[in-house]
Amino acid sequence: MAYVAVKGGEAAIQNAEALLRAQRRGPEAVPELTLVQIQTQMRLAVDRVMAEGSLYDPDLAALAIKQSWGDLVEAIFLLRAYRTTLPRFYYSQPLDTSQMRPQRRISAIFKDVPGGQTLGPTFDYVHRLLDFTLAADDNRFVAPQADSAAATGPLPSAINALAQEELVRSHRPAEPAPPDLDELAHLDSAAPFDLTRQPLTTPADRDARLQNLARADEGFLLAMAYSTQRGYGKNHPFAGDVRMGEVEVVICPEELGFEVAIADITVTEVQMVNQFKGSKTAPPQFTQGYGLTLGYNERKAMAMALVDRSLQAKELDEPIDGPAQNEEFVLYHSDNVEAQGFVQHLKLPHYIDFQAELNMVRKLRAESEPPTKSQTAIEGAVKAVSRSADHGLSKANQSSIQLLAGLGVAGDAHAGATVQHRSRVAQNPTQPNLRQVHLIQAELFDQLKAAGFEIAPGAMGENITTHGLDLLALPVKTRLHIGESAIVEVAGLRNPCQQLDGLQPGLMAAVLDRDEQGQLVRKAGVMGIVVASGEVLPGDRIQVELPPEPHQPLDRV
After folding, report:
1. Helix (H, G, I), strand (E, B) or coil at 19
2. Residues ≥6 apart with Cβ < 8 Å to 414
3. Torsion (CA) 241, 243, 249, 252 in degrees, nearest 10
4. Strand, helix or coil at 388?
5. Per the domain annotation, does 438 fall within a domain?
6. Domain span at residue 440?
7. How many domains does the chain have?
8. Does residue 465 sit within a domain?
9. For the chain, what is the mean pLDDT?
10. How far apart are CA 409 and CA 403, in angstroms?
11. Does residue 530 fall inside a structural domain?
12. pLDDT tens digits, residue range 391-407?
């Protein structure tokens, strides 16, 4: 989108930025918030910014939260923007979440699961009452000691038991063998979809959908997931495996030829289980939804898994009757960076667009009110429409033309906010374009035919050929309402030029005359400006709206 530049606002913009910085800092008597405080005491906010900003860096996420004044969507935007500046060195190997060192792990489908259940830090069992003791500045809390007898080692999924009985639709082997690099390299000839480098299109494969959902807005996903529980999708889920903890990030540099662990990161993984009654191609079984996010984002990961399952409706031959099952709707509206940008751009200048709407409303209001003295029943019609991208005299007839407010005829050489006719450009190229649209009455052609000239519509360079209207008798600022929505305001007379004689010798003299007082009469039509956009076709009705009196007669422009 492009916007008209607003001059004179630079100082105001700088003052607005200074005010933002000052209010964000707050009173100097209050200690400034540090990044360590944000990172350690607002961990869930930091984790959300990392997840939806697609960058695992707690320090930068904390900085983005501080810079955004606590606006998490703005912080996500800042982190996402910074991410685009970073070089890409390697693709990591798939995360092996079966080797997670869990801080939290639960299952709602089995009480006893391999590796056990660990509640970890959670709001699930606390009262939703304000704790006023937190208002003090010296709170000290002691974390309970971890169970030294807790199981260590592999942490298999709780739904593996279902997979072993072939009761769950699987997207990958339940217990993969230790990865072989050569085998992984040839497992799939197509590289995984990369949302950061490829544009999203629909229909999308599941890898593209999951990437989109992983950085989608938590609130949007939560609403979509909730809608499936209220009947818009009819999927009854169970939380099969919910875990949060640290996993290794592993790369395999080509120059080394072996795997290297480069980091431990915190992730949240959720596998939801849904009942499936079967179809023509699949037996009754359970299906899965999958969610994985950076950091501790359990609600987001659960919502992601529910929406992932809903988006499998087409693959499972299920009826698509809920918004969460509509792939295009979900994927194209889930990104809060795109969404907030488009919504907030409405605050930027839309002066020309609004003026067009304003003119339209005024026109509709005028049509619905009784005629005034400034309005008459004068009407005509469009006989032909023409345009040319070149600065020659004649213009080719068209099936329709598009008038653009403040510019003229789309695709015509004389369209523009400033003068385009070469004679006027030579005088002053910055003067406003009062010759955006050229109109000629077809009755002139009848007069010329009687004088021996055969002239077709468009030959004399007009954009709109009319009939039934005495254009030359209209006063300045007369508005011509043409077709459904276009409005042209008459600016003045066309001044005939020597080019007409190139069309037919003597034509220029034929379109000039003298009145009874000896004044020169120019009969080659009128010029106007477009005040409301719209399509114009041959046969369109033309309604004349006269300006308030006193009227100013036309003169050349």
Report:
1. helix
2. 391, 408, 420, 421, 433, 435, 436, 438
3. -10
4. coil
5. yes
6. 357-545
7. 3
8. yes
9. 88
10. 5
11. yes
12. 889 999 999 999 999 99
